[in-house]
Amino acid sequence: MKTDIRNRKDIELLVNTFYDKIKTDAVIGFLFTEIAKVNWEIHLPRMYDFWENILFFTGNYNGSPMQVHKDLHNKYPMKPEHFEHWVILFTKTVDELFEGEKATEIKERALNIANVIMYKSLS
Ligand code: HEM
Q1: What are the boundaries of each domain within the chain?
Q2: Domain 8-122 adopts which CATH fold?
Q3: What is d(CA 73, CA 104) in angstroms, rounded to the nearest whole number?
């Protein structure tokens, strides 16, 4: 039986599984691997902090996601389809691994943040 997202370990599993899919994804993988050339050793822990702060209010994330995606958009013009695909992959990954209140919450927050990032990056 699936559990809810309970702690940082669970977030690490979710984030690692998600970016494993992203790295080889036919629609948006190249944005990470070829355009941004992401350093995963830095990016993954940053994403653990980001989501842990959102779900459990740890206060340990202090980046600027809006600017990062604006910069990426300047390098390669992204489309709403890219963001929609990101949300589908993220939702799918959550559903594969977890169920419960926090699992529902993280999917809702991801969708909302994706819309804000998309609006701010693409406009
Ligand atoms: C098409 C969709 C997206 C693409 C292609 C994308 C790509 C990227 C890239 C390339 C980075 C920089 C990694 C690096 O440091 O080198 C990044 C950072 C980040 N992304 Fe996204 N992203 C997308 C959507 C999202 C969404 C929907 C969220 C949140 C729900 C998100 C949250 C973040 C955060 C928190 C960071 C770290 C920013 C920082 O503190 O430096 N991204 N993303």
Answers
A1: 8-122
A2: Globin-like (1.10.490)
A3: 29
